[in-house]
Amino acid sequence: MLNRSTIKFVTKIFAMLRSLLLWLLFFSTTLVAQAQQLVFSTQVSAEKIGIKDQLQVDYTLQNAQQIESLSPPNYTDFTIVGGPYQSSQSNIQMIGNRMVESKAITISYVLQPKHLGVCTVQGATAKDAANHTYISNALSIQVVNGSVTQQRSSSRDPFGDDDQDPWAMMRQQMQQMQQLFSGRGRAQAPPANQPAEEIKAPADLNKNVFIKVSVDKSSAYVGEQITTSYKLYTRLPMQMSISKLPSLNGFWTQDFELPKEMKPTEEVINGKKYQVFLLKKSALFPQQVGKLQLDPAEAKGLVRVIQKTKRSNPFADDPFFSQFGSLFMGDPFFDNDMFSGMAYKDIPVTISSAPVVIQVNDVPSAKKPSTFTGAVGKFQFDVQLDKQTCSTDDALKLKLLIRGSGNLKLMEAPLFELPKGIEKYDPIVIDSITGRTTTIEGFKQFEYALLPTAPGDYEIAPITFSYFNPTTKQYEQLVSQAIHLHVVLGKHLNRAQKNTLAQFHSPKILLNVHQPLYAFDHTWYWIALFLVGLFLIIQLNKDKWQSIWAAWIDKRNSRSNKVALKRMKKANVFLEQKQTTLFYEEVSRAIWLYLSDTLHIDLASLSKEAALEKLTARSLEPKLIESVTAVINDCEMALYAPSIAEHKMQQTYQDTIAIITHLENSKR
Amino acid sequence: MKKIVVNFIVCSVLVLSSYTVWGKASNNTLQERFKLAMQDNQWDVANRMLDSMLQYAPYQDQLWFNKGVVYYNQHLIAESIACFQKSLLLHPFNKDAEDNLQIAQSRLVDRLPNYFDFILLRWWKLLINPYFHNYWAFAALFILVVVGLCMYLPMALRTKKQFRTIKNTALFLSTCFFIMAYLSWSQLSKTAVFVVQSDQAMQYATPLSKAGKQVPYGTLVSVLQSESNWYKVALPNGIETWMQKSAIAKF
Hints:
The complex is a heterodimer. By secondary structure, chain A is of the alpha+beta class. Helices cover 30% and strands 34% of the residues of chain A. Chain A contains 15 helices and 31 strands. In chain A, the strands form seven sheets. Chain A has a seven-stranded antiparallel β-sheet with strand order 1-3-6-5-14-19-20, with helices on one face. In chain A, strands 22, 24, 25, 26, 27, 29 and 30 form a seven-stranded mixed β-sheet that branches. In chain A, helix 1 packs parallel to helix 3 (166-182) and helix 13 packs antiparallel against helix 14 (622-640). Chain A starts with a helix and ends with a helix. By secondary structure, chain B is α+β, with helices and mostly antiparallel strands. In chain B, strand 3 (230-234) and strand 4 form a beta hairpin. In chain B, helix 3 (61-73) packs antiparallel against helix 4 (77-90), helix 3 (61-73) packs parallel to helix 5 and helix 4 runs antiparallel to helix 5 (95-106). Classes of the chains: A alpha+beta, B alpha+beta. Chains A and B meet through strand 28 and helix 10 of A and helix 1, helix 3, helix 5, helix 7 and helix 9 of B.
């Protein structure tokens, strides 16, 4: 029988236990408050194992960010028989009006003890990017002979069985609660007092917790941005994590930035107020034409439902506690929910969204510019060349920069042609998303390396960038400015050029500018040529020229003879008519002209002395010379004294005929 | 009469000497101005000075060379090529012009391949180059003088058959040289250089080439025929075609 002091002692113990539970609850909420702080802990599968048993050790890093290394300790008491195995998990947890997402990384090892007794599992070491070192806690394991697992399965002590031990049950329940609130528990693992298989959410539960995928448009062009939002609607406390994201085949996706601390919004659907959590917001850019389906998103987790289930009091069935009777149960501590059953029930559920179908149309083919390369959205276009002047040794960078919102990742480089003499290499493509708040904005840069191969002045023609603006449903064109490029000859020419090209020569200043001498342009050349030519012509045909001269002389002589005889014929007429003066005039002309022609004496210098001299030089007979002298004298005398010479007319006529005949004969 | 002749001679001498002095002074001034313009990179001024000097001496190869350099500095490559080519036509052994022509042509973006020229044809073209005109002309005259002097050799020597053979050969050579002198002199009127100065110069359809093929900027062409606004030209690759006159510059 128990005395009063014993009852007081037991009551005090239970009061202490109650306060301990309260402290544990307080401690767990503190953990929640510190959920975003890094926690590095060591957990083992059992605190007591046999020498033949294996021990699983989990090193868990919660809220780890930028951890660079995680190294296990050097186990002195254990041998590693398995591991490391890495796993990670992500949990979304609702705390009041806030949704907190926590991530954890777990490295697991399977160890085999080396000896009996107390063995120590040392803490692992982790380092982050800032070179901070974190060491997890060490744990002591009691290693006994044989195998503890076999002992447990073979002999079950009602007091040694944790499942039946009320303290163990309490501890397990507290751990579950702690896990639930701290988010450390694995979402997939059902509580120990629940069946192991997953429970499909009942229909009424689906009305209270569901995922909805909303799109801003159900029909779009290829490349046009479609904004999708994945929202979790709930009216119940829950712990959910997205287990499966929709496969977005046929789309290029870009996620929007979400606030780090997400606050739920409230929406009223069918008169019911829901708390709405934006899980994910993405921009989708369809890449193919047709009906594209957004597969459902799926989330798993626990939903806490209020369930008025009465739990059996473990102390009531215990023979030890049954001795206390109603006195023991009369304590208000034993009337609370812990012993009367949980007021909330965590039900593991899997919820998924309804699939969404989007009709994707091709961009209009009408008025599609030839320079269209698939850009859809709203853009700005800029072309930059890093140098305007360079040499053939230099390489140039031509940047085509496209800024704006649209399918930046999908568009191809604008088409353009370079003038001959400039080689173009494949571009370096840089794209970056700079804005993710309301629209996906960014830039895409095509950087071409250009290599001028020949010096010269080039003009890179304006480059046209065409895109389809889904807002106006029209193609728009952006045209850059033409770029002038001056390329000079570089020093490092290629071999072919180097061998052939010399240094460029500067102009030469002439001391005296004159027209070059061309012989044919000068008169003196022609004169000289004429003279020399004439000389040669004469010299080379001397004999011929002489014969020609002689013939000419003969011709002339014969002509003078004819003239003289003609005159003498006329003189004979005057002789017969006894006209003395006329007769002598005619004879005088005949003899003088004949002598002039025959003796080659011009009339100006013709005189009796000259004629006689020529006749003498010809070695003629003196009688003939005397006869010529007599005829000339008679003619002169007859001009001054015609009466005296009248009787000599016949004699003069005959002498003159004789002289001409004689001289003619002397020529032959 | 004698007084008139003396006065005429004196006046002629004075006029000629003054013209010579003025001409030299004028050219020297132009040279100085050209030199200063080149030093100050005033290419337009330098070009004008050269144009003035070329009016006086249009066949002075060095002036064309200088003009080519000026054009080159003005980045007028086609014109520069034409001037260097003209300088080489007037003086085929102007190495500087040859080097500069190569450099200028290397700046062309595109070039037509040169039509294959037989070496004999090249030699013939070289022989009838105006540069050799004086050689031919004076050689012909010299041979005639020598033959004329030979006429004063003793009759015994002149009557020999060998003398007559040599004499006739010399006369034949002199005639040939004279013809060569004439041909080279006539080439002066064919030293006009035509160059394609338009990027848009299009080739007319010919049996050998497709219609609309582009003739590169800076291509030297030979004009074969002129008709209204068109030239019939021979391209360096041997193709004959018609081109618009506005696309071709003449130097």
